Amino acid sequence: MAPTQLPESGNPLLMSRHTADSNSHTGEPLGRITFELFKDVVPKTAENFRQFCTGESKDAGGRPQGYKGSKFHRIIPNFMCQGGDFLKGDGAGSTCIWGYKSFDDENFNLKHEQPGLLSMANAGPNTNGSQFFITTVPTPFLDGKHVVFGKVVDGMEVVKKMEATKTGYRGKDVPNMDVTIAQCGEM
Question: Is residue 51 annotated as part of the catalytic site, yes or no?
Answer without folding.
Answer: no
